[in-house]
Structures are given as structure tokens and as C-alpha cells.
Automatic annotation (TrEMBL):
Binding site for substrate: N264
Binding positions (Mg(2+)): N199, D213
Source lineage: Bacteria, Pseudomonadati, Pseudomonadota, Alphaproteobacteria, Rhodobacterales
Chain ranges of the ATP-grasp domain: 9-229
Cofactor(s) required for function per UniProt: Mg(2+)
Annotated organism of origin: Meridianimarinicoccus roseus
One Gene Ontology CC term in the entry: cytosol
EC number: 6.2.1.5
Residue numbers binding ATP: K46, G53, R54, G55, E99, S102, E107
A GO BP entry: tricarboxylic acid cycle
Name of the protein: Succinate--CoA ligase [ADP-forming] subunit beta
Length: 392
């Protein structure tokens, strides 16, 4: 899960990383007011979207008066910002971050990532900040410094000092850099982050070190135990279909066909896609309801699949291990009652409580097409499609 720059800055500041003073604005008036309260001659107005490359895309500007801030802010708020990273759809700008401007002497790159090879947190740094890491790796790979952190020891002071020296820092900056590095590491570790990136980390005219930009992303699987982090989620920055599925604990991917699929387990889902193709059909989606699916979750899965207007048949294929066929069956019936299903539904149940599940479906009196095997289910789904284009 990604968060906004201003949220990442607040977190990092709490752990001891120096960041510029600033505030969040949702309206041009608030933005102009922040310029006046900050009290400086220059401030930076920055679009808050979950993406880098905002500078190049016109989402960052140095402003010299409250009128200039107001004008720039009203041009940004409510629009979409298309950056190199967002794709053509872009991301909506709902809020801005207004901060005091810094006088930059040097720009550095600093990142903390999970290195899967060493199974450890790794620092990636470069004396050439400001550029995106991908471009840095391509254009100036020699400048990249990598340092792996031993989890039993944590980030050792000697490592942090060595990194500061290799970045060309000296004097009081070494101590400041060590403090910043340790703070980033603690924030990463204590909050189950997947990535901390400060690009650029700048050395100012007066010799101080400041995080001019900040990006953090978190392990979604750990959010249950990081309530504070979870509360920073901004659904406005997500794909609405994905958000809906995510909110209901479903893994959903939209595809081009017309057979809607509700399946448990990614492996069975993939096998079902193949069987559908083999039977001459095309899946409309890939939806994994996961293990231990309650009737409510099955019902939400129907809602998700039915929100795709291309869907003309639904195939439910469950091999219940942790799941229970009677729960799934009740979920299907609940979906008929609550969602209102007007297209054919094929259900294949197998595994835990299969007899109970089949009985519930049989006794419901609903026009559900039953199937015993995966192959049977796939053929039944293909056959059940309305043949309005049979003349072809
Ligand atoms: P990104 O483009 O999304 O990565 O956004 P950044 O926060 O990195 O800002 C983009 C660029 O704006 C930076 O690389 C700087 O060149 C410039 N910038 C941001 N804040 C300041 C500032 O306080 N002073 C100056 N002079 N430039 C700034
Ligand atoms: Mn940046």
C-alpha cells in the first residue's frame, strides 16, 4: 500500500528525519493561507498523488506570493496528473502539500528496499539524486551504493558512517546523515514498510540535510497489525474495481470474455480459465474468493462479477478444503436474494461438506445448473450462454 508524500514525511519526521515545515491544503484558500503562515518568501506547492515524476509532469512549483500559490493550486486541484509512472489515466489531485522552500546545494538519492536475494533490508544510495532510480541505474550505475543490513544487529553506526563518507559527506553532515539513516531504518522495520525512498535527500546551502521528497509503501499483509498505517490509505488514488474487490478481501482481475468466474484458490482459478477456453468459451474475469469464504463474501463476489456488463454466465467452482461447501451454497442463495441474478449460474462443489452444499442448492428450487467435475462445469457454462449470435 502506498501513502502520500506528506504522510511519509510526517512518519519519517517522527522517527528523526529532518523534513521541511509545511501543511496540507484541500482548497486554493488553504494553500494561500499556508504560504502566509509559513512566513518565508518562497514556498513549494506539491500535488499529492501516489506517483513519482510529479516535478516533470507539472505538479510541483516554487511560488513567491500567496496569490501565486492560490493560482497554481486552483489549476491543480480537481484535475488529474499524468506522470511517467501513472499510465494514461493519471491520478486525481485532491490535496496539495505546501512547504517552505529549501536552498539546494546537493541532491542525493536514498532508498530502503527489501532485497529478496539476501532476504534483508538493503540501502540503495547515490550521490546523484533527483533522477528516478531506474534512470540512475541505467545512466550512472557506478554511482549506486548498496548496503545490506543484518537484522540481528540492525543498521550499525559504522555502516551508516561509511555510507555517508561514500556519498562525499563530511564534517557535521556525517552525523546528520547517520541520524537520518537510522531513523529511516527504524521506520521501515517498525511499521512493516516495503520501501522508503527519499529522492532527493538534499544538502542545503547552510550545510543541513533535509528530505525534500519522501515515498513509503507498506506490506499489505501486515496492515492488520498497523492500524495507524492502514488509516493512511487513500482509496481516491486506487482503481475503483480493485478497491471494491480489495475491500471485500477478494483477488480480482478483469478479462475480456463473458463467463464470470467465482473460484477459490489461484491454482484452481487458472485451471478453470484453461478449461473454459478448452470448452470454447472465454473468462470475463479471474476472481479468487480465497479460503474460509463466508456466505457474505460469496455474495460480494457475485456483486463484483455482476458489475461487469459483459458477463452472461457465472461459473462457481469450489474445491473446499478450508472452505465449506455449505457456506458457499448459502452464499450463492443469498446472492440470488440480495443481488438479483438474471443470468445462468453453474455451480460445481467438491470437498468439505459437499453433500450438505449440494442439498442446499437442490432444495433452494433456484435454477442453478449443477456440475460434478471441472470439465463438466466449464462445458455447462459455455452451453448456458445466451445464443443470440448463433447465426454467425
Ligand atoms: P517528484 O518529481 O514526484 O519526485 O517530486 P519531488 O518532490 O522530488 O520534486 C521534484 C523536484 O522539484 C525536485 O527534484 C527539486 O528539483 C524540485 N524541488 C522540490 N522542492 C524544492 C525546494 O524546496 N527548493 C528547490 N529549489 N527545488 C525544489
Ligand atoms: Mn522525488
Amino acid at each position: 500500500m502506498d501513502i502520500h508524500e506528506h504522510q511519509a514525511k510526517a512518519i519519517l519526521a517522527r522517527f528523526g528525519v529532518p523534513v521541511p515545515r509545511g501543511g496540507v491544503a484541500f482548497t486554493p484558500e488553504q494553500a494561500a493561507h499556508l504560504f502566509r503562515t509559513l512566513g518565508g518568501e518562497v514556498c513549494v506547492v506539491k500535488a499529492q498523488v501516489h506517483s513519482g515524476g510529479r516535478g516533470e509532469a507539472g505538479g510541483v512549483k516554487l511560488c513567491r506570493s500567496d496569490a501565486e500559490v492560490r493560482e497554481f493550486a486552483s489549476g491543480l486541484l480537481g484535475t488529474t496528473l499524468v506522470t511517467k509512472q501513472t499510465g494514461a489515466a493519471g491520478k486525481r489531485i485532491d490535496r496539495l502539500w505546501i512547504e517552505e522552500a529549501s536552498n539546494i546545494a546537493r541532491e542525493l538519492y536514498l532508498g530502503f528496499v527489501l532485497d529478496r536475494k539476501s532476504e534483508r533490508i538493503m540501502i540503495v544510495a547515490s550521490g546523484h539524486g533527483g533522477m528516478e532510480i531506474e534512470d540512475l541505474a541505467e545512466e550512472d550505475p557506478e554511482s549506486l551504493i548498496r548496503m545490506v543490513i543484518d537484522p540481528a544487529v540492525g543498521l550499525a553506526d559504522y555502516q551508516a558512517r561509511e555510507l555517508a563518507f561514500r556519498l562525499g559527506l563530511s564534517g557535521q553532515q556525517v552525523g546528520q546523515m547517520v541520524t537520518a539513516l537510522r531513523a529511516c531504518y527504524r521506520a521501515y522495520r517498525d511499521l512493516d514498510a516495503m520501501m522508503v525512498e527519499i529522492n532527493p535527500l538534499v544538502v542545503c546551502d547552510d550545510g543541513s540535510i533535509v528530505a525534500l521528497d519522501a515515498k513509503m509503501s507498506f506490506d499489505t499483509n501486515a496492515l492488520f497489525r498497523r492500524e495507524e498505517v492502514a488509516s493512511l490509505r487513500d482509496p481516491g488514488q486506487e482503481d475503483p474495481r480493485e478497491s471494491f474487490a480489495h475491500d471485500h478481501g477478494l483477488a480480482y482481475v478483469g478479462l475480456d470474455g463473458d463467463i464470470g468466474c467465482i473460484i477459490n484458490g489461484a491454482g484452481l482459478a487458472m485451471a478453470s480459465m484453461d478449461m473454459i477456453q478448452l470448452a470454447g468459451g472465454a473468462p470475463a474475469n479471474f476472481l479468487d474468493i480465497g479460503g474460509g469464504a463466508s456466505p457474505e463474501r460469496v455474495c460480494q463476489a457475485f456483486r463484483t462479477v455482476l458489475s461487469d456488463p459483459n458477463v452472461s454466465v457465472i461459473l462457481v467452482n469450489i474445491f473446499a478444503g478450508i472452505n465449506r461447501c455449505d457456506w458457499i451454497a448459502n452464499g450463492v442463495i443469498q446472492a440470488y436474494k440480495e443481488v438479483g441474478i438474471e443470468i445462468p449460474v453453474v455451480v460445481r462443489l467438491s470437498g468439505t461438506n459437499v453433500e450438505a452444499g449440494r442439498r442446499i442448492i437442490r432444495d433452494s428450487g433456484l435454477p442453478i445448473i449443477g456440475a460434478d467435475t471441472l470439465s463438466e462445469a466449464a462445458h455447462a457454462a459455455v452451453a448456458a450462454r445466451p445464443h443470440t449470435i448463433a447465426a454467425e
